[in-house]
Amino acid sequence: MTTIFAVSVDSVEGSTLRGRVHIVNPDVPYVPEETVFPLSLLVDAWWHLDNGYWHDECDDERGGRCPFTKEQGKDITAGMRLKDKFPKLFELILGKEIRVTEDGYLLADDGKTVLEPRRKAEDVYKLSGGSCPGYSVFTSGNAEEFSQCAADIVASYDISPYRNVPLLSEVAALKDPNEPWDPDEPDGPADLDGYGAWKLLRDRTFADLPYAEIVVTVSDAGYLEHMVAGMRWDTTMTGHVC
């Protein structure tokens, strides 16, 4: 899946997380304002740690980083006071994986035994359309329930003004270098959903890309037990439910 944002954690104090969301994909040029977005980030970070996909040996061109080893990350998620909440939240966003035969019949947890009475997954669950033939299918997420969870869990969510946004004058100069900017014209941040702004941004380093600071306070500090200052990762999460 295509990276949408790069997320950095600046501090975690009690029930409040402060961080930055860098905009790296012109298809989603603004930080989502709904509370489902910060909750989906917490779930995304949990999933990466719990599955050992994000650890201290990971590195990418944007400086993705995690202070934990693979084993430490798994130990942290296993020891979280609210660890049982996260699998359900993950399923509400992306759906649940259901083991099936090649013909779509439900299998037991061993992945081999056909459940009795024999039933096809499509007759029992609302499926998303995603599948691994002969292995598993996926249920649909639940936007309404996830939205309600966000309302219960995210006590407050604030987004700062955007930083590092190209100016209107810069975009105008790129469009026509021979037409000087009228100093009497009001200048200011360009629209991030415009082609000109992203033509300028494509040559910038990660540190110079647009970003917004976020402050997220949750109803229970247990939802932040896996988050620490210095973390950075790429995410496909937008708060949208599949």
What topology does this entry show?
Layout: E1 5-13, E2 16-23, H1 36-50, H2 70-79, H3 85-94, E3 97-99, H4 121-124, E4 127-132, E5 136-139, H5 143-153, E6 154-159, H6 168-175, H7 195-201, E7 211-218, E8 232-235
Antiparallel strand pairs: 1-2, 1-8, 2-7, 3-5, 4-5, 6-7
Helix pairs in contact: 1-3
Could you explain how this protein is built, in words?
- By secondary structure, this protein is α+β, with helices and mostly antiparallel strands.
- The chain contains seven helices and eight strands.
- α1 packs across α3.
Attribute tags:
242 residues, globular, three-stranded antiparallel β-sheet, single chain, five-stranded antiparallel β-sheet, alpha+beta
